[in-house]
Amino acid sequence: MLLVGPAGDFGVCSDSGSMPYYPSSYEAVISVAAVDSSARRADFSARNDYVDIAAPGVEVVSTYPETLLHEVLGTTGLSVPPYSPVSGTALASAHVAAMAAVVWSAMPWLSAQELRTRLLSPSLSSPTNQPYTGSGLVTHGFFPIVLNMSGKCLDHLGGTTNRGKVQLWECHGGPQNLWTYDPLRKLVVSSFGWCLNADPLNGGSVYISKCDPLSANQQWDYKAGGIQFRGTYCLQAPSQVAFQNGGTVQLGHCSGADNQKWVLQPRHQDKLRLCKHLCEYNSGGDDYFATVGDWNRMPHQIGDNQLTRVYIPPGYAIKLFEHENFGGWTTPWSGSHTNWSRLNLSWDNDAVSSFKIRKLPNPNSTKSPEVKLCRNTDCSGGVFYASVGEWSSMPSEIGDNDLSFVYIPRGYTFEYFEHPSWLGWSRKFGSCDGDVSLNMIEHNNAVSSFKIGLAC
Q1: Which SS3 state, helix, strand or coil, does residue 240 take?
Q2: The pairing of beta strand 3-6 with beta strand 29-35
Q3: I want to staple 92 with a disulfide (CB 3.0 to 4.6 A). Which of 6, 34, 76, 234 is the partner?
Q4: Which whole number is the average pLDDT over 237-249?
Q5: Contact, 453 vs 413, CB < 8 A?
Q6: % helix / strand / coil in the chain, to the nearest 5?
Q7: Which residues have C-beta within 8 Å of that of residue 67, sequence separation ≥ 6?
Q8: Local structure of 188: helix, strand or coil
């Protein structure tokens, strides 16, 4: 039996915020902290050393007793859906329990202790860089398996049929794109709970079927960027189809060739991967994973003028510069809202010495963590939602010199400038401790450009 419990909702209390909270502080129980939509620990979440992991627990839409909901909303006598946003570590612990159920349904052979170890593994959770969140934000631990040479992912069409087809496809993050590795039983497992099989006596065909930890046809070794079958054969994609959706996947004699190098990307699915040379996985400083921010010089893992390839996950973009401190020629922003992108600098120019990474703005969203800009203090004149990035001029929804109000979610910064292209006087606002509401009339509404960044 796996036991999961809330860490406690008394983090704001100076006298008890760091005290144990039972039963979740017992060693046998997974103690769960609450984080918001930006993976930042909620103020109310307990600040004790018994916290094991974190999960969403702020403004989570949940079922709510109808009578209480009517009292809160003042809607007695009216028909309203019995749902409401609720916050608390109890909501977060429910996420972890549900995640455990997802993993256990895909890998029913795991013992309770194995499942606990897996959920709390720092290599499978997503780091929050926040205190009192344990090993980080819980994940199911299923991630893309990416072919290094093309950036295509191992995919099984969403099929749940014995001997179902396995192929290459875009890394879209769907369930048929997600896998994990069980090193004890040497199984490569899909998020549907089916396992990777191979038949070396039948042309080296590769397919999925029901998982059987005792089957010799499901025994794989994942190491040094390759996926080996029985120590002799390797999973590969023929070079002529390695860049194609629907490209064949099969067995081949292990040679170390590029079309046999795969990466199971547990902690870096939301980061850009910068590559030097062929970007071999675990090859000792051949790659660097970077998230949103400004790099005024190349990381030492890559070196100056040595950048060869960049893999960009959906929702992110990168801009490259010839010289340090963003000088010299520059490339356009490269990235996609929906698909993985890849830059091959060896085909263009690898003389890159600095770069910037941004989250792509999504003007269609009306929710945090985007910064909300308003014309008129009540937002009646126009609204624009902006994510991390740079705006050299004001969006048409607001207009030049007409910014009246700005809502800045916790963990983000808003810096505004007097003139377009970030010239003239400027001021920056934002906090790691809470949201900021900025009435521009109290400052100066003569704003013509702005930048949005991360405060923590």
Answers
A1: helix
A2: parallel
A3: 34
A4: 85
A5: yes
A6: 15, 35, 50
A7: none
A8: strand
